[in-house]
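Notes from hallway chat w/ T.B., transcribed later so I don't forget. T.B. wanted the structure written out for a chain they're using in a teaching module, and asked if we could keep both sequence and structure tokens in one place. Agreed to drop them here.
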Amino acid sequence: MKGYYRLLNTELQSMMWGLLFLCGLGVGIQLLLLQLTVSSMSRETALMRFEELYAASGSVVAFAMLLILLMGLFALNLYGNYWGSKSIYTLLTLPIRASAVYWSKLTAYAVALMLFVVSYVLGMRLGYSLVQGAIQRYSSEDWTWAGGWLMAVIRSSFLRLLLPMTWEGVLSSVSLALVLLSGLFYVLLCERSRRFGGLPLLLPALFFFVREIRVRTSDPFYGEIGFSRVYLGSLVLLGLAVLFIILGSRLVRRRAIA
């Protein structure tokens, strides 16, 4: 385990500056977009719910674009082991299990994704305060949104993806994150090992990934949609994530990526 923790620390350090940049960019972009949205305050803007104003500002699209950049950072982290000193050969010859190399990278990606999501939610909360202050300055009355931040999270399908309010929502969000990370890592390992036999698994993974997001974003309030639409999709995604992990770790254990 000591070797695993050391590798995990090394992986996180190698991505630290890029991760901090993306986290800071996520917070800054949201504040900028919301400031531009409320810069010319009108009665229509003041009466909009926060989640509607947030979506109209383009912050949801910004999240998707930054998430793609984060996935690119993960890819650079792996490919960096093949550039310069070619540290991949050192990693695979360390006196530890080869599976520790796999799990250290996957865990580092999961931690980085979690930190990115937390920073983005922090940016949302700061944006809420920014918009609330703009509305109060616009009106001589003390206008406040009914229910405030909590109601915005409950009503917004996008915010509930990042801050699930129910157990089925938690299961769904975790399964989406796991299949995204394990699937991306598996694709990169297949490319490095030149073994593409398992890539057809990406088709059902992509189908159920998109389906799960559509189900979550189509639900107007609490996410209590039922077994067949949420639990079943989440369990399929978890099964695919486990399969990606098994196949990916097997490639690393066999040193096929060297």
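Follow-up for T.B.: The mean pLDDT is 84. Might be a good example for the class.
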